[in-house]
Amino acid sequence: MSEASGEAKVEADVDKAKAAGKPANPKADDAVSTLGIPDTFGRKGTIAIDENVPIESIILAYEAVDNIADRICAKVRPAIKEGPVLIHNPADFAAIEDLKVFNRQADAALHVMNVILAEAGGEPVTRETGHAAFAGTLAIAGAVITSALQLLSLVRADHQIKNYKVDVEDQVLAMTVAGKLAGKNKVYNTALMPIDLDAEPKESPSLKRLEVMKETRARLVAAGAKIANSTDEKETARYRRIVEAIKEFDAFELSLLKADEKSGISRMAHFPAAEAVLALLNTEGPFILWLKAVAAGGGVHAKDTAVFSDLTYSGGALAIYALYDKAGVLQEAMPISSYAGIVHLRDLDKTAIPKFQKV
Length: 359
What we know:
Layout: H1 3-20, H2 26-34, E1 48-49, H3 55-80, E2 85-87, H4 90-119, H5 137-152, E3 164-167, H6 170-181, E4 187-188, H7 205-227, H8 233-257, H9 267-283, E5 287-304, E6 309-324, E7 330-344
Parallel strand pairs: 2-4, 2-5
Antiparallel strand pairs: 1-3, 3-5, 5-6, 6-7
Helix pairs in contact: 1-7, 1-8, 3-6, 4-5, 4-7, 4-8, 4-9, 7-8
């Protein structure tokens, strides 16, 4: 029997083994795809405003957001000095966790495949995959930050000041703070702009790792082809193990490349972004700044007397920040509130109030 026909038999037996297997458990598949990481909020880059809120109150609420950004910058500057800052993006650190799971799964799968390949007399694939670059404190940072920030996010609440609520997205606060830091610090915000450290993109370590696994699979197929029709009991048992190992790898690869039903993006597609963040942490070691817009609102007060009438507007906001170093160690964190004050209708046109100056 030729080696080509033997390989065809191996692939046929792999397909047969898959068909004979139990149907996938949808809940289990969901658990693998989400990795048990809680859903995150914000980072949409939009502003949702109650249509009944008067523009004067909205302006005052955003004036309060601007004041909060000033205070956050004043708080963190003694720690960060003129160093780089990475605005925390939950998607990045969820992808880092997924990448770590992939590396552990790949290690286990490669070990099993190489053991079987060695027993069949094949040569293992030893090409460097770049996996060592993810060792050390950086591997810890993702888990620490994700869990800590998910805990902090539980304090998010909707507050109504007087009659109106203004919903300020986290990204609005993030961009306001980033704009104020950008004068002296290099600021990265991957929610809006991906990290590109080099003009020439480097090969992804996770893709290299998958290529090594696929090459190992090909060698297993070739080794199986040589013993596909053997009548020896040991060779027959080894052949069944080869078929099973190939089937397991194919299922693993499918889980990486299958697009998510909601996002349309596969697990593997998130890995380059995670690797870019890890590369940034390795090269520049930025501080990681987490920002959360908790609440904002404004109100209107009408006062009528027999002598005069008056209309006043007010606004304020509340936010939380947390500053971590690249190893995931919390440096400082606290809520900050700001009240933009009260402005009388009769004073709106006065140039003494910059926020309401005419253009």
